[in-house]
Design brief:
This protein has helices spanning 13-24, 36-46, 63-76, 102-128, 149-169, 202-213, and strands spanning 4-8, 28-33, 53-57, 82-85, 132-138, 175-181, 223-226. It is globular, with a radius of gyration of 17 Å. Helix content is 42%, strand content 16%. The structure holds NADP nicotinamide-adenine-dinucleotide phosphate. NADP nicotinamide-adenine-dinucleotide phosphate binds next to helix 1, strand 2 and strand 5.
Length: 233
Amino acid sequence: MNKRIVITGATKGIGRAIAEKFASEGWDLALCARTEKDLAELNSKLQTANNKLLLSKCDVSKKEEVKAFAEKVNSEFGAADVIINNAGIFIPGQVINEDEGTLEKLIETNLYSAYHLSRMLLPKMIEKKAGHIFNLCSVASIQAYPNGGSYSISKFALLGLSKALREELKEHHIKVTALIAGATYTDSWKGSDLPKSRFMKPEDVAKSVWDIYNLSENTVVEEILLRPMLGDI
Ligand SMILES: NC(=O)c1ccc[n+]([C@@H]2O[C@H](COP(=O)([O-])OP(=O)(O)OC[C@H]3O[C@@H](n4cnc5c(N)ncnc54)[C@H](OP(=O)(O)O)[C@@H]3O)[C@@H](O)[C@H]2O)c1
Protein backbone atom coordinates (compact mmCIF):
# COMPACT_ATOMS: atom_id res chain seq x y z
CA MET A 1 0.00 0.00 0.00
CA ASN A 2 1.22 3.49 -0.82
CA LYS A 3 2.15 5.89 1.95
CA ARG A 4 -0.14 8.88 2.45
CA ILE A 5 0.54 12.55 2.89
CA VAL A 6 -1.94 15.31 3.78
CA ILE A 7 -0.97 18.84 2.72
CA THR A 8 -2.90 22.06 3.30
CA GLY A 9 -2.40 24.86 0.80
CA ALA A 10 -0.99 22.49 -1.80
CA THR A 11 -1.79 24.33 -5.04
CA LYS A 12 1.04 26.87 -4.93
CA GLY A 13 4.47 27.59 -3.54
CA ILE A 14 5.97 25.43 -0.82
CA GLY A 15 2.90 23.19 -0.41
CA ARG A 16 2.86 22.46 -4.11
CA ALA A 17 6.58 21.67 -4.22
CA ILE A 18 6.09 19.19 -1.36
CA ALA A 19 3.09 17.64 -3.15
CA GLU A 20 5.11 17.24 -6.36
CA LYS A 21 8.05 15.67 -4.50
CA PHE A 22 5.92 13.09 -2.68
CA ALA A 23 3.84 12.36 -5.80
CA SER A 24 7.07 11.66 -7.68
CA GLU A 25 7.95 9.15 -4.94
CA GLY A 26 4.65 7.31 -5.50
CA TRP A 27 2.73 8.53 -2.45
CA ASP A 28 -1.05 8.98 -2.14
CA LEU A 29 -1.94 12.62 -1.55
CA ALA A 30 -4.82 14.41 0.23
CA LEU A 31 -4.57 18.07 -0.69
CA CYS A 32 -6.60 21.18 -0.08
CA ALA A 33 -6.79 24.86 -0.97
CA ARG A 34 -9.58 27.40 -1.49
CA THR A 35 -9.44 27.80 -5.28
CA GLU A 36 -11.21 25.02 -7.16
CA LYS A 37 -9.63 25.61 -10.57
CA ASP A 38 -6.14 25.33 -9.09
CA LEU A 39 -7.10 22.02 -7.49
CA ALA A 40 -8.38 20.77 -10.86
CA GLU A 41 -5.09 21.74 -12.48
CA LEU A 42 -3.19 19.91 -9.74
CA ASN A 43 -5.26 16.82 -10.39
CA SER A 44 -4.06 16.61 -13.98
CA LYS A 45 -0.43 17.12 -12.88
CA LEU A 46 -0.16 14.76 -9.91
CA GLN A 47 -2.44 11.87 -10.80
CA THR A 48 -0.53 8.79 -11.90
CA ALA A 49 -1.65 5.26 -12.65
CA ASN A 50 -0.61 4.12 -9.18
CA ASN A 51 -1.43 6.83 -6.70
CA LYS A 52 -4.61 7.97 -5.01
CA LEU A 53 -5.41 11.66 -5.02
CA LEU A 54 -7.97 13.27 -2.76
CA LEU A 55 -8.50 16.94 -3.56
CA SER A 56 -10.73 19.16 -1.45
CA LYS A 57 -11.81 22.74 -1.61
CA CYS A 58 -11.32 23.87 1.96
CA ASP A 59 -10.72 27.16 3.69
CA VAL A 60 -8.58 26.09 6.63
CA SER A 61 -9.38 29.26 8.55
CA LYS A 62 -12.89 27.84 9.03
CA LYS A 63 -13.17 25.04 11.58
CA GLU A 64 -16.21 23.47 9.92
CA GLU A 65 -14.37 23.21 6.58
CA VAL A 66 -11.29 21.71 8.26
CA LYS A 67 -13.61 19.20 9.92
CA ALA A 68 -15.17 18.22 6.58
CA PHE A 69 -11.70 17.81 5.02
CA ALA A 70 -10.46 15.76 7.99
CA GLU A 71 -13.53 13.51 7.89
CA LYS A 72 -12.93 12.86 4.20
CA VAL A 73 -9.28 12.05 4.87
CA ASN A 74 -10.13 9.76 7.79
CA SER A 75 -12.80 7.85 5.89
CA GLU A 76 -11.22 7.64 2.42
CA PHE A 77 -7.55 7.61 3.35
CA GLY A 78 -7.19 6.18 6.86
CA ALA A 79 -4.18 7.12 8.98
CA ALA A 80 -1.87 9.67 7.40
CA ASP A 81 1.86 8.94 7.39
CA VAL A 82 2.68 12.64 7.05
CA ILE A 83 0.72 15.84 7.68
CA ILE A 84 2.06 19.12 6.34
CA ASN A 85 0.39 22.08 8.02
CA ASN A 86 1.42 24.50 5.30
CA ALA A 87 -1.52 26.77 4.37
CA GLY A 88 -0.81 30.26 5.58
CA ILE A 89 -1.12 33.90 4.68
CA PHE A 90 1.11 36.89 5.19
CA ILE A 91 -0.33 40.31 5.92
CA PRO A 92 2.41 42.88 6.49
CA GLY A 93 1.85 45.49 9.14
CA GLN A 94 2.53 46.60 12.65
CA VAL A 95 0.62 45.75 15.80
CA ILE A 96 0.21 49.46 16.47
CA ASN A 97 -1.44 50.32 13.14
CA GLU A 98 -2.55 47.20 11.25
CA ASP A 99 -6.27 46.89 10.39
CA GLU A 100 -8.67 45.76 13.08
CA GLY A 101 -9.20 42.00 12.71
CA THR A 102 -5.71 41.27 11.30
CA LEU A 103 -4.63 39.24 14.30
CA GLU A 104 -7.84 37.18 14.23
CA LYS A 105 -7.48 36.44 10.51
CA LEU A 106 -3.84 35.42 10.82
CA ILE A 107 -4.38 33.29 13.90
CA GLU A 108 -7.37 31.54 12.28
CA THR A 109 -5.46 30.79 9.07
CA ASN A 110 -1.94 30.18 10.34
CA LEU A 111 -2.56 28.60 13.75
CA TYR A 112 -6.10 27.26 14.32
CA SER A 113 -5.93 25.46 10.96
CA ALA A 114 -2.93 23.38 12.11
CA TYR A 115 -4.34 22.92 15.61
CA HIS A 116 -7.71 21.60 14.43
CA LEU A 117 -6.46 19.49 11.53
CA SER A 118 -3.80 17.82 13.69
CA ARG A 119 -6.33 17.07 16.45
CA MET A 120 -8.75 15.60 13.94
CA LEU A 121 -6.22 13.37 12.16
CA LEU A 122 -4.13 12.34 15.16
CA PRO A 123 -6.40 9.65 16.66
CA LYS A 124 -5.78 7.36 13.66
CA MET A 125 -2.04 8.07 13.72
CA ILE A 126 -1.89 7.35 17.45
CA GLU A 127 -3.73 4.08 16.85
CA LYS A 128 -1.11 3.19 14.25
CA LYS A 129 1.76 4.42 16.49
CA ALA A 130 3.42 6.13 13.54
CA GLY A 131 3.41 9.38 11.64
CA HIS A 132 5.11 12.71 11.16
CA ILE A 133 3.71 16.24 11.42
CA PHE A 134 5.50 19.17 9.78
CA ASN A 135 4.45 22.74 10.59
CA LEU A 136 5.43 25.54 8.21
CA CYS A 137 6.91 28.01 10.64
CA SER A 138 9.01 30.99 9.63
CA VAL A 139 11.99 33.07 10.66
CA ALA A 140 9.13 35.24 11.97
CA SER A 141 8.51 32.38 14.48
CA ILE A 142 11.81 33.09 16.20
CA GLN A 143 12.38 36.82 15.72
CA ALA A 144 10.16 39.85 15.43
CA TYR A 145 10.76 42.41 12.68
CA PRO A 146 9.35 45.89 12.12
CA ASN A 147 6.72 44.98 9.52
CA GLY A 148 5.91 41.54 10.92
CA GLY A 149 3.04 42.52 13.24
CA SER A 150 0.43 39.83 13.77
CA TYR A 151 2.01 37.51 11.17
CA SER A 152 4.95 37.11 13.52
CA ILE A 153 2.60 36.53 16.47
CA SER A 154 0.79 33.76 14.55
CA LYS A 155 4.06 32.09 13.54
CA PHE A 156 5.49 32.24 17.08
CA ALA A 157 2.27 30.49 18.15
CA LEU A 158 2.65 27.85 15.44
CA LEU A 159 6.14 27.10 16.76
CA GLY A 160 4.56 26.84 20.22
CA LEU A 161 2.03 24.34 18.87
CA SER A 162 4.90 22.33 17.32
CA LYS A 163 6.74 22.17 20.66
CA ALA A 164 3.59 21.14 22.56
CA LEU A 165 2.80 18.40 20.04
CA ARG A 166 6.37 17.18 20.04
CA GLU A 167 6.26 16.59 23.81
CA GLU A 168 2.82 14.96 23.71
CA LEU A 169 3.44 12.71 20.73
CA LYS A 170 6.90 11.27 21.43
CA GLU A 171 5.38 8.44 23.49
CA HIS A 172 3.10 7.62 20.56
CA HIS A 173 6.08 7.33 18.16
CA ILE A 174 4.85 10.30 16.12
CA LYS A 175 7.45 12.82 15.04
CA VAL A 176 6.88 16.58 14.93
CA THR A 177 9.09 18.97 12.98
CA ALA A 178 8.92 22.76 12.91
CA LEU A 179 10.20 23.92 9.51
CA ILE A 180 11.51 27.40 10.16
CA ALA A 181 11.78 28.84 6.67
CA GLY A 182 13.28 32.08 5.47
CA ALA A 183 12.19 33.95 2.34
CA THR A 184 11.23 31.41 -0.32
CA TYR A 185 10.28 32.45 -3.84
CA THR A 186 6.54 31.80 -4.20
CA ASP A 187 3.47 33.77 -5.30
CA SER A 188 3.60 35.68 -2.04
CA TRP A 189 6.82 37.36 -3.28
CA LYS A 190 5.76 38.01 -6.88
CA GLY A 191 6.18 41.67 -7.68
CA SER A 192 9.17 42.01 -5.35
CA ASP A 193 12.06 44.08 -6.78
CA LEU A 194 14.60 41.53 -5.64
CA PRO A 195 15.97 38.91 -8.04
CA LYS A 196 14.61 35.38 -7.72
CA SER A 197 18.15 34.22 -6.97
CA ARG A 198 18.03 36.08 -3.65
CA PHE A 199 15.34 33.67 -2.34
CA MET A 200 15.28 30.02 -1.35
CA LYS A 201 13.60 27.63 -3.76
CA PRO A 202 10.37 25.88 -2.69
CA GLU A 203 11.91 22.66 -4.07
CA ASP A 204 14.69 22.90 -1.46
CA VAL A 205 12.12 23.08 1.34
CA ALA A 206 10.36 20.05 -0.19
CA LYS A 207 13.64 18.13 -0.37
CA SER A 208 14.32 18.93 3.29
CA VAL A 209 10.92 17.52 4.23
CA TRP A 210 11.68 14.36 2.28
CA ASP A 211 15.14 13.94 3.83
CA ILE A 212 13.89 14.63 7.37
CA TYR A 213 11.05 12.16 6.93
CA ASN A 214 13.46 9.49 5.76
CA LEU A 215 15.70 9.48 8.82
CA SER A 216 15.58 6.31 10.90
CA GLU A 217 12.98 5.94 13.63
CA ASN A 218 15.68 6.68 16.23
CA THR A 219 15.94 10.34 15.26
CA VAL A 220 13.59 13.29 15.02
CA VAL A 221 14.42 16.74 13.68
CA GLU A 222 12.46 18.93 16.09
CA GLU A 223 13.30 22.22 14.36
CA ILE A 224 15.15 23.15 11.21
CA LEU A 225 16.12 26.67 10.18
CA LEU A 226 16.46 27.25 6.43
CA ARG A 227 17.63 30.67 5.24
CA PRO A 228 18.43 32.25 1.88
CA MET A 229 22.15 31.93 1.14
CA LEU A 230 22.71 35.68 1.56
CA GLY A 231 20.57 35.89 4.70
CA ASP A 232 17.17 37.33 5.51
CA ILE A 233 15.39 39.78 3.25
N1 LIG B 1 7.31 32.08 1.00
C1 LIG B 1 8.01 32.42 2.05
O1 LIG B 1 8.92 33.25 1.99
C2 LIG B 1 7.72 31.76 3.38
C3 LIG B 1 8.70 31.85 4.39
C4 LIG B 1 8.45 31.25 5.61
C5 LIG B 1 7.27 30.57 5.84
N2 LIG B 1 6.34 30.53 4.84
C6 LIG B 1 5.09 29.81 5.14
O2 LIG B 1 4.97 28.72 4.25
C7 LIG B 1 3.60 28.49 3.97
C8 LIG B 1 3.38 28.50 2.47
O3 LIG B 1 3.79 29.75 1.96
P1 LIG B 1 3.89 30.04 0.38
O4 LIG B 1 4.77 31.22 0.24
O5 LIG B 1 4.20 28.77 -0.33
O6 LIG B 1 2.39 30.50 0.09
P2 LIG B 1 1.66 30.75 -1.34
O7 LIG B 1 2.57 30.59 -2.48
O8 LIG B 1 0.91 32.03 -1.14
O9 LIG B 1 0.61 29.55 -1.37
C9 LIG B 1 -0.30 29.39 -0.33
C10 LIG B 1 -1.10 28.12 -0.55
O10 LIG B 1 -2.02 28.00 0.55
C11 LIG B 1 -3.35 28.08 0.07
N3 LIG B 1 -4.13 28.81 1.07
C12 LIG B 1 -4.00 30.09 1.49
N4 LIG B 1 -4.93 30.39 2.41
C13 LIG B 1 -5.67 29.25 2.58
C14 LIG B 1 -6.79 28.93 3.37
N5 LIG B 1 -7.37 29.82 4.19
N6 LIG B 1 -7.31 27.67 3.29
C15 LIG B 1 -6.75 26.76 2.46
N7 LIG B 1 -5.69 27.01 1.68
C16 LIG B 1 -5.15 28.25 1.74
C17 LIG B 1 -3.27 28.77 -1.30
O11 LIG B 1 -4.32 28.43 -2.18
P3 LIG B 1 -5.71 29.27 -2.19
O12 LIG B 1 -5.32 30.72 -2.19
O13 LIG B 1 -6.43 28.83 -3.42
O14 LIG B 1 -6.43 28.87 -0.94
C18 LIG B 1 -1.95 28.17 -1.81
O15 LIG B 1 -2.15 26.87 -2.28
C19 LIG B 1 2.81 29.57 4.72
O16 LIG B 1 2.37 29.07 5.95
C20 LIG B 1 3.85 30.65 4.93
O17 LIG B 1 3.57 31.47 6.04
C21 LIG B 1 6.54 31.08 3.62
